[in-house]
Model the fold of this input.
Amino acid sequence: MSLNVYLSGEIHTDWREQIIDGSKGLDISFNSAVTDHDASDDCGVAILGAEPNKFWHDNKGAKVNAIRTRKGIADADVVVVRFGDKYKQWNAAFDAGYAAALGKSVIVLHGADHQHALKEVDAAALAVAEEPRQVVEILRYVLTGALPG
Done:
């Protein structure tokens, strides 16, 4: 068995790298949104032309980014959605809902301080982890049946 895993959510920490590095040796391919914050924010206007109004600037970028995000989630077997501490990731909540609506297996990753705010997102997930290593352990178990230890 192999897995295609889409990594969604905050871009300010190395959680993606921790999961990818921890999954070495497993038959997993990873994909994610563009994690270069400036490129993600400005892709629409860089490609399609400048916008004097910030709303339309952001709208263009969101739509161009959505092409990649929709494809990544649609192709995924598992979608991991990380909610970080520093910023509110409304896009991550949208990705989790989109993935759940498509019937994807969703793993949510966040600290205990977000439990109440994300209770509906957590309820739609098949697992809620607090650490990237727990996500790795879930993926390893799914692929091999091996428990940590």
Remarks:
- Helices lie at 15-22, 37-48, 54-75, 90-101, 119-124, 132-144.
- The mean pLDDT is 96.
